[in-house]
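Workshop exercise sheet. Pairs work together: one partner reads the sequence aloud, the other fills in the structure field after running the prediction. Swap roles for the next sheet.
Pair: D.N. / O.F.
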Amino acid sequence: MMVKAMILRGQQALAAPHRLGFLAGGILLVLSFLWWGGHMLGRWQGIALPSAVVPMFLHGYSMTYSFFPLFMLGFIYTAGPRWLGVASPSLRCYAPIMLGYLLGGLLVLASAVNTALLGLGIALQLLAWLAGLAVWIRAILSSAVADQLHAKTIALAFSLGALGLLLALYWAMTGDVSAWFGAVQLGIWGLLLPVFLAVSHRMIPFFSATALPLYSPWRPNWWLYTLVGCSLLRIVMFGLDLNTLVVDATMASILLYTTWRWRLIATFKVKLLAMLHAAFAWAGLAMLLSVISDVLQWRGHFGLGFAPLHALTLGFFCCMLLAFVTRVTLGHSGRPLLAGGVAWTCYWLMQGVALARVLGEILPSMQAILYAVAASMALLALLSWSRVYLPMYWQARVDGGAG
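Structure field:
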């Protein structure tokens, strides 16, 4: 009976791209934060946990390339074919890609005890990602749909992600720190931000219009062109060691205006919708912090350190991930689109993680305790969320539907 139950669970987990992608991504998400949370709590107690790879380098790579790409594949292989009017990829196509990327991520995390596993893990993730990119490009080329803006933006971001992984592999093989830095910059500004912007631009106004009365969707194409263009320009300016004040100010202005235009306050009538909008608000706040940091550096001061970066990665990326994956999981498991107590509580814990991590940069005297608070809240939020939501990926839909 136990073996039969395990087989059935495995079949359910493979039944749709989002199931396998979200489950694999969830596993790496929890493990990545467990590893880093342990280091943060150890640092608070004055204990340096052993690591074969420099913790900052492994942290930068894993938080950029470990779990986010799997969630992206799970989503885009589910929603993307509908955007393009093409068939969804088959199990035989997506399963090796996602399982290969998961295995690579596990090897990367295991390199904390054996450095030989780092290059092997990144190489496996690079190969899986290239295969995943090929599947997506093939879907675009076979589509007759006129509006392919979001699909092509994501394809461009995925391509830059592949370049970032290639740089990361070079770092793993040679120890070249500049290659690691380039990989992380490409991952954040070339892969993650463009994808999150494209999906937000397409989906948040749509979700809002279906949930709020008298809501007028606003998503002009220039918005996406400008913000993604600025994000990519930022990579070039980093490489040339130029101050990014003008670019950051442009992005901050557009993003903060969008938060207002998309009616953040009104969305709190619907918790699941508010989660998306409140996460998006961090994007504008992150770029505003970047503007402040740019001005401080221009005037000869140190700036705000990693505060803008963590406002973007923890505030926007991680909170949006939790909000979006919760919504997709509920909808595709046949459950009502309602944010229950666990999802709502865990989400705001993650908001607290972002705030604590940002304040830790701005208030150096409280940095150690704020880092520990951030780590503790992150572990509590993610472990609690995973306990409720990860099992949904190996359970049948509650409404008896397929997928």
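Discussion prompt: The CA atoms of residues 24 and 99 lie 7 Å apart. What would you look at next?
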